[in-house]
Amino acid sequence: MVYYLGLSLLSNKHNSLRKAERRKLLSAEARCILSQLEGRPLAEDDVATDAVGRPFFPNRDTDFSISHSGNLAAVSLAAGRNLRTGCDLELVRPRAKAPAIAEEFFTVPEREYIESGGSFNETRFYQIWTLKECFLKLRGLSVFDMAGAPSFVSGEDPGRFAFDADGVSPISFNLYELSGSAGERYILAAALEGTETEQPEIRWFSRETLDCINMTSAVYMPFPKTDTQIQRWR
């Protein structure tokens, strides 16, 4: 089994690009990462999309997920039978609608975690957002299904991450904070379904890199349900 997180950071010279131009460049960068993780150039017909628009490799035991934000592109890739992966990346930045989004889509324990310091914590908002998004992408769902995503904070132990959802395979989660010398910060979440393996190998494909801290890891073990089914985040 192979499990990678490939990352590539655009240089600051691209900051002047318009949003649409930067997104196009980041999409191309993500495809380049995917090619390098695969160890071969990718032709147009190497990647297909399923009925809900999720990209995949036809007739291959390899799954992948792509995300980008700010100047950073990320790709999670898992090679092995019956494995699925999802990743989501967000640049930590002020977002006027974040409290309203949390109120509509996050659970009560999650909102309490975000506001536990007495005010709305944007970093914690992005932690929950990326975890939910990587789970949705893992399952081939969209942001419109956000309200149906599981809670990632325990109601019994406020302030602690946890995870519980119906399923038949183990799901492992990793949550990272990445930071640069200019003060930029990103939150990155990755999920792997089908094995108890927790840690992806992180590989950089750009000359410039960011400091990367694995903030927490957890594995969800499915049935038979026991008192230890939800393993607390370390």
How are the elements arranged and paired?
Layout: E1 2-9, H1 19-38, E2 48-49, E3 55-56, E4 62-69, E5 72-79, E6 84-91, H2 98-105, H3 108-114, H4 122-138, E7 171-179, E8 185-193, E9 201-204, E10 211-220
Parallel strand pairs: 1-9
Antiparallel strand pairs: 1-5, 2-3, 4-5, 6-8, 7-8, 7-10
CATH class: Alpha Beta
| Low-pLDDT segments | 223-234
Helix content: 10-25%
Order of helices and strands: EHEEEEEHHHEEEE
* Strand fraction: 25-35%
Q: Can you count the beta strands?
A: 10
CATH superfamily: 4'-phosphopantetheinyl transferase domain
The appropriate CATH architecture is Alpha-Beta Complex
The strands making up the biggest β-sheet line up spatially as: 4-5-1-9
Number of helices: 4
> What is the domain tally?
1
Q: Radius of gyration, Cα only, in angstroms?
A: 17 Å
Which topology does CATH recognise? Ribosomal Protein L22, Chain A
Can you describe this structure?
This protein has about 230 residues and is α+β, with helices and mostly antiparallel strands. The protein has one domain (about 1-220): 4'-phosphopantetheinyl transferase domain (Ribosomal Protein L22, Chain A), CATH 3.90.470. Helices cover about 20% and strands about 30% of the residues. It contains four helices and ten strands. It has helices spanning about 20-40, 100-105, 110-115, 120-140; strands spanning about 1-10, 50, 55, 60-70, 70-80, 85-90, 170-180, 185-195, 200-205, 210-220. The strands form three sheets. The protein has a four-stranded mixed beta sheet, with helices on one face. Helix 3 runs antiparallel to helix 4. The longest helix has 20 residues, at about 20-40. The radius of gyration is 17 Å and the shape is globular. Residues about 225-234 have low confidence and may be disordered.
